[in-house]
Every structure is written in C-alpha cells, then in structure tokens.
C-alpha cells in the first residue's frame, strides 16, 4: 500500500457549502422529506464538440449559464458553441457543479494536461473565471482519472483509477495465474485545496475468479454511504482468456461487483457481489449510485447484454440486498435496457436516460425505487438521433430535475420535471451544431 497527504497550492478559493437534508433511517419505507430548492442558482449547460465522427464529443467542451427563470423559458435560446466558454480538457470534460450552481469543478481528461483539477466561478453567460491555481493529481491517479464529488456539502471529490491490467504467469513463465492492475483511490479536499488522502493497491478477486481470467478493468462513481464511513466504488469487469492471454469480448459475467473501502482512510478494500445483477456498476461519465431517503444505496448496472440494466440495493451494512430485484427491462416492458446516466431526486423517485435493444436512441424514464416501477416520460421530443451515451449532468433543485435533451446535430431543449407530480416543462432552446450534442445541465 502507498498513501499520502499533501498540501497543494493555496488558491484563496471560497466555496459555499450547504447542509444536505437529513434522511430517514427507515429501511422499509422512504420518508416523505420535503426538499428545499436553491433560491438563487445558475443553470449551466455543457456542449460536447465533435472531433471526428458525429456525436463522438471528443473535440472539447463549452459551457454557458443562465438563470433558473431563463432556463425554464422556451422563448430563451442558448448557444453554448457560439457564445459559450471552453473548459480545459483535451476530450470531453468531466464536470461537477456545486449545490448552488455558482462553482464548476473540473478534472481534465487525457492529453498533456490530463489529471489537472481546477474550479470555475460561474458568473452568468460565458463568464466563467478559473479561480486559484491548477492542481495536478496525474502522478497519483493518472492522466485519465474518473471522478465525482461526494454529496457532503461540496467539500470533497473522489478520483479513482486502475492502471492497465497486466497478465501474470506462474514461475514457469507459461501457466496463466491472474490479471491485475493497480488501483488508486484519491480524495480531494475542496475547502483546504489539497489532496486529503490517497491509497494505491492491487485488488484481487477470489482465487477461483482470477484463475478464470476475471479482473477489474475500471473503477468509477464512488458513493459515500449514509454513515459516512465507507465509499462504495463501481467496477467495470473484463476477462482474460487464460489459454491465450487475450481479452475476451464475450464471456460469462460474474455477479455485479463494487469495491468497498473505509472512509476517510481509504483502507481495507474489499469486494461485494450481487447475485441479482450481472452488469458493471461503474456507469460511464456520471454518478451511478445514490443514498436514498431510506438510507440505502441504489446502484444502476450497465453492459449486461443478456438481462439489461438493473437497479441494485446496497443496505446500511454495506452489502448487496439480494432480496431487492428491480429489472428495468421488466419495469419498462423492453429488452436490453441500458441506463446511460441517472439521478436520484427525493422520496424514492429518480430519473434515468436510457436506450434499449436494437437502437441507440435515447429516452427518459421516471423510476420509483420503492415500488420498483419505471415508465417512459411523456412530453419530451424524442428523436432517432437522440443519444445519451456521453450524458453527464442533471440539476436537482428542490423536487425538480433539469435535463438537457438534444439529438446529435439538432436543436433541443432543457426539460424540467416535477418529481412529485411528474409534470414536464419544456424550457430554454438549446441551439446545436452539426455533429455536436449537449451532455448535461450543471
């Protein structure tokens, strides 16, 4: 194990923090907890620029912010590509926003400046001012770290990474032994402007699983449990063919796995395994698990070609509750459902952007975690070119959720959904460019 705590360049950055609404500890029924909206916040949209192919989003990211009033006004037009400000990243930026919408957090992804952490003060329109110094975490978490902020009042971010897995043989140099990479889990202290802690370790699966070639390819989407003493980190699994040492594209998947580490020490890594889901739990470029009002963690799965996406439940003992079975295929009446991104709102209600078998066309679903039901959200302009594969950001403000909906190369809109009534409001127009699409609201 390798760890350290480092003081970084002080940037004089001031963060405004907010206490999160307390949640019921009732494991059986989510308490109806009222959620207060933020009185005055910016709504920032992010647009991904085409690099080579339409919708690849790898040409950079531009942002533009408006007031909540303007975001809800369909007569307002937002053109982030002509009027917005670029944020630093060689490819698609991975952005997070503060609760009040007045700060954007960014860690650049790949390239010469990959792994650099920075913040922007949001001042409306294209006025984004980088605040303080840029801090690199690349030497610890690589130039392409995955990261999210914790729901702890804008105090902490967590970056994770796994080095390229290496095939290891027995002493004879021929017999396959296992495939492993070295994992890094790193916490960023937003308030103190420092790396609070980091740990590096190999994270073996069971001997039987490793003998078959199973290994962790990627970590992502860390979530802090209700007790504040464990991080639950999603995994993306792959498999080596022991006979050829080649990566297998099709294989019999293990049950869905997460890595659990102590918090804030980041020590004592261990895997937990679901017997309900068999997909990955890493998500892609957004949050993938949330602590609900009942105190439990709900987690989506991806890349299960046989069963589609599931919502899994992790109880307050930090173990999978295998009595909780929620298949999105069953709930929606589709095959091959795939949750591209999703967001918990309150009182057991969440919203997911997803596609399903036979098409990459995206849709929006309202999910009731308590009833284990899901339904397509009406009132949104669906289009064959709507693709949420790179989608990142939702804004939850009180009981409302803001979603950016733009088909690749076509104009779209911000939509605001009332999670209590289900009412959908078409908001500001999002002006697009050929090959581009908007990837989130922050």
TrEMBL record:
It comes from the Bacteria. Keywords: Signal. Residues 1-19 form the signal peptide. This is DUF4374 domain-containing protein. It comes from Flavobacterium hungaricum. The lineage of its organism: Bacteria, Pseudomonadati, Bacteroidota, Flavobacteriia, Flavobacteriales.
